[in-house]
Amino acid sequence: MVTVEKLTPAWREAFLVSRNSLFTPIESPYLEQVENPDSSVPVRTFIGRDQSKVLSWGSFYLRGLHTEREHAPDLRVAMACAIGTLPDQQRQGLGAKVWRAAEMALAQEVDGVLVYTGESGPGYSFYRAMGYLPLLYPPCVRQKVSRESGVEQDVAMTRPLAGFDDFWRSSPPVFTECYRGSGGFLADRPGSLKRWTKASFFYHANAVGCIPQVSWLQDESSGSWIAYAIWAGPIEKIDWKRGAVEIWELACHDNCSTKSLDQLLRPARQAARKGSGYVDWWAVPGRLTERMLELDFTELPRSLCVLGKVFDPARNLAEQLEVRGFPADCLNGAGGRVEIRVGDCLVEIERDAATRMVFARSSASQEHQLGMLTIRPMAKARATLEAFDAALPRVPWSYLASEYI
């Protein structure tokens, strides 16, 4: 008989054995660290087990998601990671059973769940079947590096990220200017990122086989930072990333030139010569990507997808509307749609549309055009849509790999 439950200390070692049989192995001390109730980034793990071993599991980091909607509360999300079922237990519904149990428990703590998965892998169809919507397909760009061993001049200053306190003092203004108007990343920065670097096993050298670095440029007159890059590689202990050099976060001021960005990335290029010979970066909207393309980064085929689900979209929309001075009565109606009463108007939003609006991935006008949002009476549709769009604007998402890994 299979028991589905939250992971307890008694089953940690059995969970570790099963997990490590499918994924890059982690060590017992790291698992104890992240599963500690007092961890800086709380983790919730749910398992399906018999009397001797763990058969299926799902782990979730609890975090805040920044939406960039003025005054609106950050979304509380569970970020899924290390989801798996032992091969001889697959296609029997056990993974879905564990996932449903996890959702029931997580709904008491967070607004929704985010999942990052390969679009062509088996996980994508599983999450879609579980009701998760694609929210973003982050593009990856790659720069091939010459194998010549010549030393590049004027390389950016570089240090290991761990223990580099100046990063947490000097980087926030750069990040804020670079990503102002964007959402989709860790809320409460830079504190959230500092906590994440301590919690994510990708920041542990003994797990990935390299030490994450930060390179930066400073203004010569003021000493203030103008650009930085968090990067790692060559990665040696993760099969699907072996030999890769990855930029995990990149930010610069508006006046940072393409030439300066080239200087900033030289340490990462030097590292790439010792590995696979290329540098990867998950591109973000706007001028920064244009500059990277000018540096001969080329776009790779689409592969990764960010999917999401909201447990109670009516409540989330009501919260976001209220803090924007738009009080409304929001209820979950038939079929999971959201029904909003605004004066003598009734706004009906299908569940998928409401989910996109909660995550700031869509606006009322866009969903209305798609026929996913209706307004009665129709005579008041235009004014109502304008009010909703002002209160709940669509926000471009910046995908930062350091949040995923």
Unreliable runs: none
Q: Cα distance, first to last residue? A: 34 Å
Structural class: alpha+beta
Q: Can you list the strand order of the major beta sheet?
A: 1-2-3-4-5-14-6
Number of helices: 16
Radius of gyration: 23 Å
Helix content: 25-40%
Strand composition percent:
25-35%
Total E-strand runs: 18
Give the integer mean of the pLDDT values. Answer: 90
Largest sheet: 7 strands, mixed
Q: What general outline do the C-alpha atoms trace?
A: globular
Fold and architecture overview:
By secondary structure, the chain is an alpha+beta fold. Helices cover 32% and strands 27% of the residues. The strands form 3 sheets. It has a 7-stranded mixed sheet, sandwiched between helices. A 7-stranded mixed sheet has the order 8-9-10-11-12-7-13. A 4-stranded antiparallel sheet has the order 15-16-17-18. A hairpin with a 6-residue loop joins β9 (213-218) and β10. The mean pLDDT is 90.
